[in-house]
Backbone:
C-alpha cells in the first residue's frame, strides 16, 4: 500500500499545516467534456497563476473525493461537539 492521506498530512506537519477548501463552495464552472469527463473550475487564493506557470507555487493542491452525506454528517457532528464544549 502506498502513502495514505493521513500519513501524508502527519508528515507535512499535521492538521495545523494544511487548509482545506470545498470545491463546491468556490465553484466557477462545471461542464462535461468528451468521454464523460467532468471539468471543474474553481477559485482560490492559495496560489497565483504566475506561480503555477513558473513552478514557484508555495503549496500543493490535492483533490480528495469523499461521500457527501458522510462528510456533511461528520462536519455537523464536529460543529455540535464544538458548541457543546464551549463553556460560555
Residues:
Amino acid at each position: 500500500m502506498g502513502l495514505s492521506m493521513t500519513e501524508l498530512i502527519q508528515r507535512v506537519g499535521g492538521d495545523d499545516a494544511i487548509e482545506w477548501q470545498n470545491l463546491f463552495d468556490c465553484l466557477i464552472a462545471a461542464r462535461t467534456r468528451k468521454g464523460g469527463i467532468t471539468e471543474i473550475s474553481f477559485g482560490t487564493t492559495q496560489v497565483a497563476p504566475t506561480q503555477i506557470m513558473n513552478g514557484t507555487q508555495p503549496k500543493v493542491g490535492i483533490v480528495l473525493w469523499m461521500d457527501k452525506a458522510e462528510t456533511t454528517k461528520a462536519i455537523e457532528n464536529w460543529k455540535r461537539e464544538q458548541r457543546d464544549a464551549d463553556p460560555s
Notes: The two ends are 45 Å apart (CA to CA). The mean pLDDT is 93.
